[in-house]
Amino acid sequence: MQAFHLLGSAPFYTNSFLLLTKAGHAVIIDPAAGVQEYDKILRDHGAVLTHILCTHGHYDHVGSAGVLSREWGAKIWCEAADCAGTQLFPLKSADFGYGEGTNLSVDELTFTAWHTPGHTEGSVVLLCSEYLFVGDTVFQGSIGRTDLEGGSDRKMEASLRKFAGLPIPKETQLLPGHGDFSTYGEELETNYYIKAALRNA
How far apart are CA 66 and CA 72, in angstroms? Predict the structure, then answer.
């Protein structure tokens, strides 16, 4: 597997990731960067985009999904709850949603999804090998906002407790939707919001 980190435009600078399999298939997690940036990597490596995986449906995470899907014939994964066709949730539909704790395989890559509502109703985290893509559920030392449409303090607290109990090695790299990277273990040990959720259990 080859992994590439791309950034969306200002002011959000959303983290986006492109993974290439040994067979030349590509997976994008949160297509927030410009279409041409993905196209260049794909064409430089002779790869074909087949899967677009969205951690949630906010516009700063899915901006290039539609164009890339049409251009490459790639399928889009996003929870139906986050496909409202609005300014905040621009996707009107997706090809697939995620089954709780189920696996999605793309050649040698296996993604495991867990639902983590709170930032949005359809938020998920995705584990692939040593990478945990958490969208806006958890940031380094913080969590995603719960005061936007579809957000919920109560559901976020429950999701953080679930998050803390996931069967994931502590050294797994935590890749959030915004800001710096961390590890799963570091967030369990130092993230105030996760620790508070566990105290309130």
Answer: 10
Sole residue written with tokens 């790299």: 173
To the nearest whole number, what is the mean pLDDT of the chain? 97
- Nearest alpha-carbon partner for 171 in 187, 183, 189, 188: 183
The tokens of 162 are what?
């679930």
User: Any residues with CB less than 8 A from the CB of 147 and at least 6 apart, and which?
Assistant: none
Instruction: Kindly state the average pLDDT of the residues 135-156.
Output: 97
CA distance 14 to 115: 20
154-165: pLDDT as tens digits? 999 999 999 999
Number of separate domains in the chain: 1
CA angle in degrees (0–180, nearest 5) for 154-17-183: 55
| CATH number for 17 | 3.60.15.10
Contact (Cβ atoms closer than 8 angstroms) between residue 185 and residue 174: no
> In which domain, by residue range, is 177 found?
2-199
Instruction: Give the DSSP H/E element, type plus range, for residue 133.
Output: strand 131-135
Q: Work out the pLDDT band at 201, boundaries 50, 70, 90.
A: confident
CA end-to-end distance (rounded Å), the chain: 39
Q: In angstroms, what CA-CA distances link 126 with 29, 97, 171?
A: 9, 12, 15
